[in-house]
Design a protein that fits this description.
Elements: E1 4-7, H1 12-24, E2 28-31, E3 43-46, H2 55-73, E4 77-81, H3 98-113, E5 119-124, H4 139-151, E6 158-161
Parallel strand pairs: 1-2, 1-3, 3-4, 4-5, 5-6
Helix pairs in contact: 1-4, 2-3
Length: 164
């Protein structure tokens, strides 16, 4: 059975992923960046978002640290829920959102340069993923897509898009 470490377990995506993992009988341990990670987990999923943290610290420095922590804990795979602007860089964004979007793009550069043993991937939901679940693509759909990739891996060291 695949055991999961879930970063961002209290957020919108994290809660849905934890619920879907429970339905599938997959054990989930909530974790935070910087925690001492327990052993015995196969896959880490990161859905981390913070409106108050410095985006570069969270997504660039945080990803480097997370990869090193996962290596030490013996976790072989990392799945990050990404941001659509990394696939569609021409999207018009409010200026206040720009540092966040740039940090997520820099996070991909960190992952692409990584040569360690952790097999990483970035699952990028579509733009119509909205908080109130009124869009064509819902957080439950994202959870399904993420966990389908966890139990039947088909992407490795890459970013992929899920569609509505």
């Amino acid at each position: 059975m695949t055991a999961l470490l879930l970063f961002g377990a209290n957020g919108r995506a994290g809660r849905r992923i934890a619920e879907e993992a429970g339905r599938r009988g997959l054990p989930v341990t909530a974790a935070r960046y910087g925690d001492d990670l327990p052993s015995g987990h196969d896959v880490a999923i990161s859905t981390v978002y913070s409106a108050t943290a410095d985006p570069r610290e969270l997504y660039v420095d945080g990803t480097r640290t997370l990869l090193a922590d996962l290596e030490r804990a013996g976790v072989g795979r990392l799945l990050i829920v990404g941001l659509v602007t990394t696939l569609q860089p021409d999207l018009e964004l409010p200026e206040s959102f720009r540092p966040f979007a740039l940090a997520r793009a820099a996070e991909l550069e960190v992952l692409a340069a990584y040569r360690g043993p952790v097999d990483w991937l970035v699952c990028t939901p579509p733009l119509d993923l909205v908080a109130d679940e009124s869009g064509a693509f819902k957080y439950a759909d994202l959870a399904t897509a993420v966990l389908d990739e966890v139990v039947r891996p088909s992407h490795h060291r890459a970013q992929y898009a899920v569609k509505s």
